[in-house]
C-alpha cells in the first residue's frame, strides 16, 4: 500500500527560486532512497480562515507564500527505511533550507483511495 509524507510550510516569497533549487536536489535524494514521486505546490489561491487555514497553521507572514507538498512512497516500510537513509546522507545536511523549518508541518499518511 502506498504511503504519503505531507508537508505545509511558509516560504519567503523572495526565496521562490532558491526553494525550487532546494526541492530539485531533495527530489533526487528522496528518489535515491525509494520515493516514487515528489510534488511541490506554490500557494496561489489561499485565503486565511477565521478559525483555521493553511496560512494560520504555518504562521505565514505577509512576505511569505504557503507551499504544500507530498512525497509518495511504495509503502510505509520503504518510507521508514528511505527517510532514515535521507536523514543520514551528508548531502541532506549540506542543504540550506530556504524557509523557517520550525514552522513546517509534516506527517505520514496511509493512502485510503487513489482514484
Summarize the structure.
With 115 residues, the chain is an alpha+beta fold. The protein has helices at 16-32, 54-57, 76-88, 90-94; strands spanning 3-12, 37-42, 64-73, 105-110.
Q: Looking at CATH, which topology would you report?
A: Alpha-Beta Plaits
Radius of gyration: 15 Å
Query: What is the total domain count?
Result: 1
Count of extended strands: 4
Spatial strand arrangement across the major sheet: 2-3-1-4
Strand content: 25-35%
- Average pLDDT works out at 96
Low-confidence stretches: none
Outline the biggest β-sheet.
4 strands, antiparallel
Structural class, by secondary structure, is alpha+beta
SSE run: EHEHEHHE
CATH class: Alpha Beta
- Proportion of residues in helical segments: 25-40%
Topology:
Layout: E1 3-12, H1 16-32, E2 37-42, H2 54-57, E3 64-73, H3 76-88, H4 90-94, E4 105-110
Architecture overview:
The mean pLDDT is 96. This protein has a 4-stranded antiparallel sheet with strand order 2-3-1-4. The chain contains 4 helices and 4 strands; from the N terminus they run E-H-E-H-E-H-H-E. It starts with a strand and ends in a 5-residue tail after the last strand. The protein has 115 residues and is an alpha+beta fold. 17% of the residues are buried.
Task: Give structural attributes.
115 residues, 4 helices, single chain, 28% strand, four-stranded antiparallel β-sheet, Alpha-Beta Plaits, alpha+beta
Amino acid at each position: 500500500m502506498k504511503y504519503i509524507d505531507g508537508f505545509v510550510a511558509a516560504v519567503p516569497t523572495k526565496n521562490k527560486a532558491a526553494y525550487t533549487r532546494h526541492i530539485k536536489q531533495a527530489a533526487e535524494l528522496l528518489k535515491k532512497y525509494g520515493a516514487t514521486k515528489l510534488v511541490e505546490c506554490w500557494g496561489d489561491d489561499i485565503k486565511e480562515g477565521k478559525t483555521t487555514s493553511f496560512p494560520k497553521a504555518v504562521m505565514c507572514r505577509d512576505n511569505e507564500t504557503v507551499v504544500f507538498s507530498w512525497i509518495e512512497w511504495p509503502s510505509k516500510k520503504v518510507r521508514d527505511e528511505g527517510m532514515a537513509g535521507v536523514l543520514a546522507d551528508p548531502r541532506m545536511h549540506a542543504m540550506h533550507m530556504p524557509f523557517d523549518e520550525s514552522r513546517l508541518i509534516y506527517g505520514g499518511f496511509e493512502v485510503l483511495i487513489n482514484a
